[in-house]
Write a structure and sequence with these properties.
Layout: E1 18-19, E2 24-25, H1 31-35, E3 40-44, H2 47-60, E4 82-85, E5 88-92, H3 97-113, E6 120-129, E7 137-144, E8 151-156, E9 159-164, H4 169-179, E10 187-194, H5 214-226, E11 229-233, H6 236-245, E12 249-256
Parallel strand pairs: 3-5, 3-6, 6-12, 7-10, 10-11
Antiparallel strand pairs: 1-2, 4-5, 6-11, 7-12, 8-9
Helix pairs in contact: 3-6
């Protein structure tokens, strides 16, 4: 049917669903009127970056006006920023799994309440790279954890729930085909490793703590590369798991900064 699936039996019995961190709600806003025609959702860490992306889409789609007056739909909160350009929604998610998870829960409920159909969601952002040139774009074929396994472990009450991180392979191939039209930078498909930390979790030697040697770091990163990892960030496993469970066609595409 193309609808967004909600795996929560309690939502139907609620008189009102408040999407607290987006400053939206089912009683305070007409969500089908506001978002019912959304077909693409692009999410990224920085509010400023997602505002710039919305301006870019406004221009690319040939919409009326110069796009400079695009309003932040979530202006009532300082947690996330949301803009729309025609059928495209552009939303910030902050840094790390906890932040993107909160945003995705409320975004997915928003799409469900708005009765959106056949929505494609793409995470765009920056990442660390492994064995690739700076400026390269990695299209994720598999999101893996720090042990290079395609799984997202979520502690629910006192149980560890393991969820699949499979992404839409057809969408990955479609994005790769589109990249052939842009020769300005290299685009490749590879595994994306998701960590819970920017410093020790990604093998950095410049944090406030460092419990390993430079040699140990290089050995670990070599094993990651040999396992197919081409970039490292902090959101992809949660992104893949939530999108997959709720029937959203999802993909992650990140550029290497360093």
């Amino acid at each position: 049917s193309g609808l967004v699936h909600i795996k929560n039996p309690y939502l139907d019995s609620m008189e009102e669903d408040v999407l607290y961190h987006l400053d939206l709600g089912t009683k305070t806003h007409n969500l089908p009127a506001m978002f019912g025609d959304i077909k693409f959702v692009c999410v990224g860490g920085s509010p400023n970056r997602m505002r710039a992306f919305a301006h870019f889409m406004h221009k690319e789609l040939g919409l009326m006006g110069d796009g400079e007056d695009l309003a932040d739909i979530c202006a009532g909160t300082d947690r996330y920023a949301m803009y729309r350009a025609g059928p495209v929604l552009s939303i910030s998610h902050g840094m790390g799994i906890p932040s993107i998870s909160i945003m995705l829960h409320e975004l997915i409920k928003l799409l469900h309440h708005a009765k959106c159909r056949d929505v494609t969601i793409i995470r765009i952002g920056t990442s660390g790279g492994l064995g690739i040139e700076a400026g390269s774009v990695v299209i994720t074929d598999m999101a893996v954890d720090s042990s290079f396994q395609p799984r997202f472990e979520q502690v629910v009450l006192d149980d560890v729930v393991v969820r699949s991180t499979e992404l839409d392979k057809d969408l990955a191939e479609e994005l790769l085909a589109c990249s052939k039209e842009i020769p300005d930078f290299r685009t490749l498909v590879g595994h994306t490793m998701c960590t819970y930390d920017f410093y020790e979790g990604q093998g950095r030697l410049d944090g406030a703590l460092c419990s390993f040697s430079s040699e140990k770091k290089l050995e670990y990163l070599k094993r990651a590369y040999d396992a197919g990892v081409r970039n490292i960030e902090m959101e992809s496993t949660a992104f893949a798991a939530l999108c997959g469970l709720c029937g959203l066609k999802g993909e992650s595409s990140c550029s290497r900064l360093r």
